Amino acid sequence: MHRYRTHNCGELSEKNENVRVKISGWVHRKRDHGSLLFVDLRDHYGLTQCVIDTSDSAFSIVESLRNESVVTITGLVKKRSDETVNNNLKTGQIEVLIEEIIVQSEAEMLPLQVNSDDDAGEETRLRYRYLDLRRTRPHNNIVLRSKIIQSIRNRMIEQGFSEFQTPILTASSPEGARDFLVPARLHPGKFYALPQAPQQFKQLIMMAGFEKYFQIAPCFRDEDSRADRSPGEFYQLDLEMSFVEQEDVFATVEPVIAGVFEEFSGKKIDLNFEHISYADSMLKYGNDKPDLRIPIEIADVTDIFRGSDFSIFAKNIEKGAVVRAIPGPKCGSRAIADRMNSWAQSEGAAGLGYIIYSNEEAKGPVAKALGQKKSNEIKSKLSLEDGDAAFFSCAFEKEASSLAGRARVRIGTEQELIDETVFKFCWIVDFPMFEKDELTGKIEFSHNPFSMPQGGMEALNTKDPLEIKAWQYDLVCNGVELSSGAIRNHLPEVMYRAFEIAGYGPEVVDEKFPAMINAFKFGAPPHGGIAPGIDRIVMLIAQEPNIREIILFPMNGKAEDIMMSAPSLVDEKQLNELHIRKTSSSQKIS
């Protein structure tokens, strides 16, 4: 018989009755029933109930064990009586009569309860993450993550993609977030950077003649954490294809993403990946990551308020403001309207105007000033009925859209309008190539600087930069951005011109992107790609509200690994080898 096990803790059943077995695992829970002591033994595969009588010589050993001690149990499999069968357990038809128990490792008092769903708090859970991961929910999340990645990998290979690994130590590149820098010991004063994404490398793979590339790529960005963003590092399905247009990328990605959600989520999958322009998304949903499960669309009602007797809005419109109207199904009460107004103020806005529709009459201060005719025009435009309300956000366009978008989500949530049984996807397309910095007035890239502008060189030379669209796209699911991608620019003259518009001369392009610009000069195929975020995919499928729950060893919100005490100080010898000198916090580094 094997030293540790003949079976795992998830596979014994009635067919094993009267078979002598050996199982190993952790003591999950003990229950004292007087003359009998029950032990639930747990391993990676499941849980098996074991039982021992007080008269047995091993009883004292079992009785003294703390939860989470590791033991090996040898015993006889017996069928449970009908009244003690546990149909919620894979092994619930049987139990093991303990004949021998060997303690492999004793556990000390636990800092958190493994056999409980009680949350011990973030600091304790992360400090003892290896214990936290023994708990059912976190353990299952990590197993789910592994299965999802394997499924994605298989689906990509089935479509003819080859998996390549790109460098981790590379050059610093201005790609939006802060780099993590690594000092180069052999090159004093110089630094490597950890890649924010394999962007340039995957394009260079296309230059090298490999037409379909992918990898499950680690990416590193020194940015703050959020519920859907891990600080420091994350993983993405990075892919690139040659000789493709935007629709070819969509046709490749949709079956992979929809297939994985269908395989693992247990929810309905809406296979209609709707295409929404960036401009329409900002207008109708108030952001570029709309949750299409909410049956509400925002409308522009600026013209209705322009020159009206509702002077607050009318005066702001003269100064360049816009008015966005948000439908409020079943929100036609003063209590709800006041609650929404208070919420808007808590969000930093001056407030949220409203009209209540009741008994074929528009009510409230806005309706009184605006008049019944214009109020009913809004009712018709928003397809509202009696018992509904309209809410209004008035500000400059960006601010008005943002508040309206958040109000839309709040209404959808409070009024229980969100269909929680379905995943709805959409592509956001036609992003602007450039945008103007609100503080400096400078023209800068709005998305990815390596994207191909719609209209190519002609558009760059003849159009207002703020009117140029790019072949850029985002994939969104239930209000969560899963991915960004683009059809890339592959022409050196287009790259130089695009960067010139953003204020960078050819010398900057040559210095910052030498490999890319040089590769373009030796025959570059048209190409495009995308990079869906693995962490967010798993988070959605696992129905977890925080990305920390689906990462094996996550950092806390301050980008600290408190389990491993990282980041940590290093000794003077290491710093000297790297030609780094420590300064006090008050000293300026020269």
Major sheet summary line: 8 strands, mixed
What global shape is seen?
globular
How would you write the strand order of the largest sheet?
6-9-10-22-21-20-17-11
Radius of gyration: 30 Å
Low-confidence stretches: none
Total helical elements: 19
Classify the beta-strand content into a percent band. Answer: 25-35%
What is the secondary structure topology, with strand pairs?
Elements: E1 20-32, E2 36-43, E3 46-53, H1 59-64, E4 70-79, E5 94-105, H2 122-127, H3 129-132, H4 136-158, E6 162-163, E7 180-183, E8 191-194, H5 199-207, E9 212-221, E10 232-242, H6 246-264, E11 268-277, H7 278-285, E12 299-300, H8 302-305, H9 311-318, E13 322-328, H10 334-346, E14 353-358, E15 361-363, H11 365-370, H12 372-381, E16 389-395, H13 397-414, E17 422-429, E18 434-436, E19 443-445, H14 456-462, E20 472-477, E21 480-487, H15 492-501, H16 506-512, H17 514-520, E22 527-530, H18 534-541, H19 572-577
Parallel strand pairs: 3-5, 6-9, 11-17
Antiparallel strand pairs: 1-2, 1-4, 2-3, 4-5, 7-8, 9-10, 10-22, 12-13, 13-16, 14-15, 14-16, 17-20, 18-19, 20-21, 21-22
Helix pairs in contact: 4-6, 5-17, 7-13, 14-15
Would you give an account of this structure?
With 590 residues, the chain is of the alpha+beta class. Helix content is 30%, strand content 25%. It is built from 19 helices and 22 strands. An eight-stranded mixed β-sheet has the order 6-9-10-22-21-20-17-11, with helices on both faces. Strands 1-2-3-5-4 form a five-stranded mixed beta barrel. Strands 12-13-16-14-15 form a five-stranded antiparallel β-sheet, sandwiched between helices. Strand 7 (180-183) and strand 8 form a beta hairpin. Helix 4 runs antiparallel to helix 6, helix 5 (199-207) packs parallel to helix 17 (514-520) and helix 14 runs parallel beside helix 15 (492-501). The radius of gyration is 30 Å and the shape is globular. The termini are far apart.
